[in-house]
Amino acid sequence: MARPAMTERQRGTLVGLARNPAAPGDVLLRLLALGDVHGITGVVVRREELPQDVVDAIVTHPDRRVRELYGLSATADPEQRARLLDGPPGDAMVLAHGPLTYRTAAPPLPTGRTNGCSATPGTTSGTSWCGTAVCPRTFW
What we know:
This protein is mainly alpha-helical. The longest helix has 12 residues, at about 10-20. The termini are far apart. The chain has a domain at about 10-95. The chain contains seven helices and no strands.
């Protein structure tokens, strides 16, 4: 049976809970499970600090959009964002784009974690998009 649609008031309450810095990891995991990618889940993914179990759930989440939000998050720890390189190939494309920031620079990925990219543009090792506009020189 399908879950009934959330009212705006319910959604607002859950977004407030997702933004609450005191919200425990198990609550954040339950909020991730709601599947509201552009609402509640997006708020959870972009939090300044996340417990390790929540990061693990995000990085291995079956919904590609959740992993993409994390890859584009300027608040995500670079070491944790780099874990997306170990997942499906499309996740590396998000990392090539980098975090979405406004008037600030996000910390770069750790050195040595760009193994999904070829060090020499045009070679057959690595992925075919390296050395193109999609994958800037600063990435590889």
